[in-house]
Amino acid sequence: MSEGVKRRYDSTRRQEQAKENRRRILAAAARLFVERGYGKTTITDIAAAAGVAPETVYSAFRNKPTLLHRAWDLAVGGDDADVELLDRPEMRALLDEQDLRARLEKLAVLNTAIMRRTAALRLAVQGAAASDQAAAAMLAEIDRQRLEGMAVHAHTAAKTGQLVVSEEDCRDVLWSTTDGTLWHRLVRERGWTDEQYAAWLGTVWVSTLAGRMAG
User: Which CATH architecture group holds 1-78?
Assistant: First the structure.
């Protein structure tokens, strides 16, 4: 009996160690992709930064493009839970908000938090896309997924009856203002706070998509 307990304990310990290794590898990969560039970062670099052997990185993620995909997913979600962004509780609660102005303001706050996690990594991918096929494919996938997500936001916004533009225009406005460029310019380069940025973005969306409140 004690031998069986020991084996289960050893198995659990190995699984936890493997998860911790994956977390460290992904954190190291994301940081190095931003600091050095995707093309200049090697698996050996990532392994060294994570404190593991290169073989461990290959075993867990196979190659660098897979690492990039997983690092991006982690940045978007903020954790390693296998749950799509639109299915997360905070997003479901937002989509249930029937006051479109309030919903857009809440979306601006949520998007600002996502931009803090993802903007630098997306810029790194964008910078590598011109010369690296894997980065170019990843950039296209990032924008495709975001367009699909914003189409959902636009569709549910239209269902409130409070949208003052077409559903397609709403989708395109949201898509064009959520790639991280505006956040990077205003927060990183101009020194705005996240709170200041979220308030401004919410005001822009409300004015453009829901109309100005009567005064």
Answer: Orthogonal Bundle (1.10)
